[in-house]
Amino acid sequence: MERENRPGREVDPALERAAKAAVKLRTRKGVRRTALHRDLGPDLRRVWHIADDAPPHRVRAIVFLRLSDVLATLGDPELEAIVSTAYNIRREPWRGRRATGWPACPASRRRPTTVGWNRSTNSSP
Prior knowledge:
Blueprint: H1 13-24, H2 36-47, H3 56-74, H4 77-86
Helix pairs in contact: 1-2, 3-4
């Protein structure tokens, strides 16, 4: 991620490291990773004002809000959806496969449901 310097302007190496750390957040589980505090690195934590002793839920909330602010400036809903998916900062919390409607186990092992219309017990007029 090399940036071209403007004539007479030097880029702070700490800001470059912070920018690289922010780009790396889109890998694996995004902001919902276990070692988020460590993966941010000291430079990005300093830029985003995250304390070294901040609890994990606070770190995640700060990162979520910072990235949400960036999304708000994009102005393109399709691009916002792509970026929010890449960084895993959707508004709803991640709840595993069940939140997506996918079965948590193979269909052969699922118990039959009693909710809904059952053709064998409900007769049509």
